[in-house]
């Protein structure tokens, strides 16, 4: 106001009142990592400035973690060191002044946790078992989001025997050689990947199902010594002849086919006769076996056969002779009318170094009439 006598000023303040209005809502979903602080924000206008009441799962939150940013006109809620148990859930805020109130849209906070992998069994990373023993590996796998869990053996996926909650189990009631390998469990979610390995070693003691036995073979023919052995790991087999180790050669052929191990002596000759020894060792068990090789010639008749019919005078002595050869020297057995002939005072059998076998009959009788046969036998044949 002003006149010739002077001026005067007056000041008045105009307040425009407004009910709370949210200009930036809470997000519908929010994620954070366990232990990492997260801030929820909502921007609001209103006069007078609205008061804020934050709620977690409909429970009021203390105001010490709430602040107002004047520049942004924004209420902020700081969630400190969140965990799934204490912080995961639904958050909302009610804004109120004298002219009214409004409520934010709810925000669901998800607290993520890295993979937590705990091996329950076995206690060691390397397991040594024998064939037939039980094997089990079990793991507790946690994390948020739920991890994807995979078990592989030597790079190939295998299925768990059971999965209950976080416990993952793979079990074998009786291990076999094919179960040996490195088992790797991998658990992965958004935050991390964890791995752990268990190496299974399977062994089996030597089980000889067919033993080494003595061998008789013909001169000039091949002879094969063999044994059958089940074991794991596959055993190393070493052959010896009179304590000299044998190798593959034109004379000796050493073979291993699955669980059958053999030594073939080509064109057997007399120098090949002797003791053969095999040593079987798979690092878990050890055994040795021996056998003898005999090289022979089939018996044959060397002298002219006696006449098909031979006469004798009753009461007088008579003889029948055959000469045989063979290696080893054959054993001669006499038969009368197809039955073994027992020796007694009247029937005597003699042999000479040249291989002649003689049957002597003293004081021939009428009942001695019949067919007399001599059979020569050795380890490789008979005649």
From TrEMBL:
InterPro entries: Cell_Adh-Cytoskel_Orgn, Ig-like_dom, Ig-like_dom_sf, Ig-like_fold, Ig_I-set, Ig_sub, Ig_sub2. One of its GO terms (cellular component) is axon. It comes from the Eukaryota. PROSITE patterns: IG_LIKE. The keyword Isomerase does not apply. Keywords: Immunoglobulin domain. One of its GO terms (biological process) is synapse organization. Gene3D superfamilies: Immunoglobulins. SUPFAM superfamilies: Immunoglobulin. The keyword Magnesium does not apply. One of its GO terms (molecular function) is axon guidance receptor activity. Transmembrane segments: none annotated. Residues 20-110, 205-294, 299-383 form the Ig-like domain. This is Ig-like domain-containing protein.
């Amino acid at each position: 106001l002003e006149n010739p006598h002077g001026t005067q000023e007056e000041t008045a303040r105009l307040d425009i009142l407004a009910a709370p209005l949210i200009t930036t809502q809470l997000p519908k979903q929010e994620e954070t990592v366990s232990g990492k602080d997260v801030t929820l924000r909502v921007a609001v206008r209103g006069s007078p400035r609205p008061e804020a009441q934050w709620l977690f799962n409909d429970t009021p939150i203390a105001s010490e973690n709430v602040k107002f940013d004047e520049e942004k006109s924004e209420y902020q809620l700081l969630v400190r060191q969140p965990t799934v148990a204490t912080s995961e859930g639904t958050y909302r805020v009610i804004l109120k002044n004298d002219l009214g109130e409004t409520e934010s849209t709810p925000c669901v906070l998800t607290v993520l946790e890295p993979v937590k992998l705990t091996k329950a069994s076995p206690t060691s990373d390397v397991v040594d078992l024998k064939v037939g023993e039980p094997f089990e590996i079990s793991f507790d796998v946690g994390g948020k989001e739920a991890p994807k869990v995979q078990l592989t053996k030597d790079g190939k996926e295998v299925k768990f025997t059971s999965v209950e909650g976080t416990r993952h189990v793979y079990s074998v009631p009786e291990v076999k050689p094919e179960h040996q390998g490195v088992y790797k469990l991998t658990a992965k979610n958004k935050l991390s990947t964890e791995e752990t390995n268990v190496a299974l070693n399977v062994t089996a003691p030597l089980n000889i199902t067919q033993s080494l036995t003595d061998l008789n073979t013909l001169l000039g023919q091949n002879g094969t010594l063999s044994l059958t052995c089940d074991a794991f790991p596959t055993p190393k087999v070493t052959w010896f002849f009179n304590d000299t180790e044998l190798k593959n050669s034109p004379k000796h052929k050493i073979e291993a086919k699955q669980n059958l191990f053999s030594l073939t002596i080509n064109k057997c000759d007399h120098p090949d006769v002797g003791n053969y020894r095999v040593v079987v060792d798979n690092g878990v068990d050890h055994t040795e076996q021996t056998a003898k090789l005999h090289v022979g010639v089939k018996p044959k008749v060397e002298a002219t056969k006696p006449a098909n019919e031979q006469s004798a005078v009753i009461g007088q002595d008579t003889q029948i002779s055959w000469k045989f050869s063979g290696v080893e020297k054959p054993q001669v057995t006499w038969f009368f009318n197809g039955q073994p002939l027992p020796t007694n005072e009247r029937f005597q059998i003699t042999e000479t170094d040249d291989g002649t076998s003689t049957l002597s009959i003293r004081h021939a009788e009428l009942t001695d009439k019949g067919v007399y046969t001599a059979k020569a036998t050795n380890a490789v044949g008979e005649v």
